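Possible regression after last week's pipeline update?

I re-ran a chain I had predicted before the update to compare outputs. Posting the input and the new output here so someone can diff against the archived version. Not blocking, just want to make sure nothing changed silently.
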Amino acid sequence: MHEPMHHPSALLRPWSATDAEALLAARRENDDLATQFGPLSDHADAARFIEETLRVDDSVQHWAVVVDGVAVGNVGLSAIEHRHDTAWVSYWLAGTARGRGLAARAVAAVAQRAFDEGSFRLELGHRVNNPASCRVAVAAGFAAEGVERLKLRYGRERFDVETHARLAVDPAPDVEPLRMLPVR
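New output (post-update):
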């Protein structure tokens, strides 16, 4: 296995309305993202989606994965729950950004930030037929915990989902987390 290339200009930052075209491009190149995005037909739809969904606040945190100033992916925390200090992690990359270790580095960075802010348990899940997503989870320090049968539906088809979790007390993964810019 080859060592992923580390792009020096890669970082995480909050999404901005100026990322609308990049979001549209990612959605157009990957049909799987339609399930996460819903219909995005133009710049206005994408800008609205960024403002309403891809935000950073007390209930959700979405971070743009940026390379050379262009948003090429997302790592998000949702279902942030403070009684038990848990959250759900999601991630995606545009096809052009895959295969370089960016997703694992981005997930590791967001996980560390969540732990630093008081989270104890972070969970994620991926379709069992998505080995690349599984590799991201494992590289970012998330241990597999089991399979949830037919949990996700994409169109009319249902998929089993393998769940993973990382605890604040787990060892840090052996990846260099992406640099994160602060929320303004």
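Follow-up from reviewer: compared with the archived run. The mean pLDDT is 91. Marking as no regression found.
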